[in-house]
Predict the structure.
Amino acid sequence: MSNQKTSSAVLVESPLQTYRFAHRMSRIGVSAVREILKVTERPEIISFAGGLPAPELFPIEALAEGHATVFRESGSAALQYSTTEGWLPLREWIADRLKNRRSINTSAEQILITSGSQQGIDLVAKTFLEAGDKVLVENPCYLAALQAFSAYEADFVAVDSDDHGMCVEQVEAAIQREQPKLIYIVADFHNPKGTTLSLERRQQLIDISRRYHIPIVEDNPYGALRYRGERMPVLASLDEEGLVIYLSTFSKTLSPGMRIGWIAAAKEIIQMLVVAKQATDLHTNTVAQRAAAKTLETFDYDAHLARLCEVYGERCLTMIDAIGRHFPEETKWTRPEGGLFLWVELPEGLSGAELLPVALEERVAFVPGAPFFAANPKPNFIRLNFSNSKPERIEEGIARLGRVIKAHIR
Amino acid sequence: MSNQKTSSAVLVESPLQTYRFAHRMSRIGVSAVREILKVTERPEIISFAGGLPAPELFPIEALAEGHATVFRESGSAALQYSTTEGWLPLREWIADRLKNRRSINTSAEQILITSGSQQGIDLVAKTFLEAGDKVLVENPCYLAALQAFSAYEADFVAVDSDDHGMCVEQVEAAIQREQPKLIYIVADFHNPKGTTLSLERRQQLIDISRRYHIPIVEDNPYGALRYRGERMPVLASLDEEGLVIYLSTFSKTLSPGMRIGWIAAAKEIIQMLVVAKQATDLHTNTVAQRAAAKTLETFDYDAHLARLCEVYGERCLTMIDAIGRHFPEETKWTRPEGGLFLWVELPEGLSGAELLPVALEERVAFVPGAPFFAANPKPNFIRLNFSNSKPERIEEGIARLGRVIKAHIR
């Protein structure tokens, strides 16, 4: 088993034999986050490690009723094979919402339903990337995006980020030097950093994309979860050239377990993504798609989002406040306006990875930051999730973590 | 739109611009079957084109109740993120069944839940294949498997097949000549042919796999649907070296729309497939997995399979009998013992593709055989599905098709 965990292991030797796996498998690696999550499932541990929404806020009854109605009204159609593009009424609902709430110039035929936003990344990678092609990313970057792109043997062009997101002023030189095929970005409430790309940088990035004709993959799973500050236009709404491929999902708002995400993009791109999805898994679960669409006919989605924002916003502030009181002075941290995470820079010399086992002994968990770096990993960062813990647990967990950090400085 | 349909189109020019898609996209191509299915949805057409199970046999109430129970008993867990491997009770049910009914030496930790059997093929391809690696297949072959492997830029080594499945006596020479990385086979009730691999050939193939150390991907979506003849051991049950990767699904027995399939393989292979799936779509819909497991706790699955076999067996015989009466004497066809399809060789000089528009005018549809060939496509074959039409519709549809064929011979 341990051979699987070294990132260079492609040949796996078992007592019986050796399997010849593809080279790409050595690039993906086992997710450090995933391995950590297994440990943190013990109930006595206060975990800031996962990226989980709060299960007590899932609209269980509405979704149960949505499923029941689908079985009652159209059971045999819902259980049958369906189109790769996805359930049309759901695509129409999504297109309407993107038009009305996000000012994206789109329509149902420009929407592909995916098995979560993660599959959106996979399909874009499959459709665009040759081995050795480069993807421009912010550093640090959403870990599972790095893994999805790595599965197609992409290389990364990493540009820095600061409190206002990707340092877009570095992008043009990076493009000239490295000629990336795609730009990947989480502009709203970044994972792992929690930062938001400034309006000026959004306009600059769209301008660069247009001038160099490089598609932008705008991954926006958290966009509906803004707790403070002014809403920014999504990159897709600024794009007039069909160069932004917009990914989103119900995972953070309705349910991650249902695995329903979507891609909104130019028709030509959607048509190619449909071909890729057909070869990958034919289509996304039809019962779930129809149940989501049916639920949204009567469920007050906006009131639900407002409730999520109220609860998560409080948890976010609680964590920011507790960090200020419990962490040593030399610590820095982001102050997210939305999303699920904040990002902590520990005092120089500390290592998130080395701190984790000690923290687990103190019954508090987090994710070390190093695996999120596409280049030049720094050991003294950690990612903290606030959506999945109630305020009193956040206060207690941050106090524990503060003691662990302080004990290590001395 | 039309550029998407030529198999060499990678550069797609839109009015606004050109996108640079990956070369692999030109290999996948748009499924001819899928394009045909769009036409055949008109109710006046008797369609033998799709591979659809009979919707009137879906256990709608049992599955509705399974879903309702999951929401009632464990809604918040079912709606949350879950493990990539899949819902443990479902993996245990599958492992038990593979042990008891298929004599496969397996356990829950050797099972990975996939989004349909199609994703099983995709993940195996992702895990094993470099660009230019070769996959040994029977000719003709399941079309969407060719597409899934092509997405990883695999090449094919095509060996012939006859009424007893893959001509295994050709395999050893093909391996020595071409050194394929994998062998892909549908041994039970082949798609498109409906044939079953003989016992002797199964043993020979396992022996060859062992001696040359080449994994076999045994794709078995139809295995539970045997209507006549003696049950054959699956290849996975004959394998003692961890070299058979066994794929199956609930798509043909419970519901294709739910997208639940599985892979049973050696632990080392499953661990690598889990890494690949994590980067691809994190995990399969948890509500659906739990609902399937919950349903199977009380639903009489064996009685359901017996009923499917009774109905489909009758439809299969009806079609065989009708072909004998309505098709011209020079026609040949397979006589499947199970599955969903039979395969018709039209008289020399006829072309399934050319016949299709005429057949559609006569309100009957089928799939031309040529796209199923991995090499040397032959025009004078067609695939007929019998599971999705009632006997009287089969009789009428085959009569219509017989008239179309006869008119073309003269």
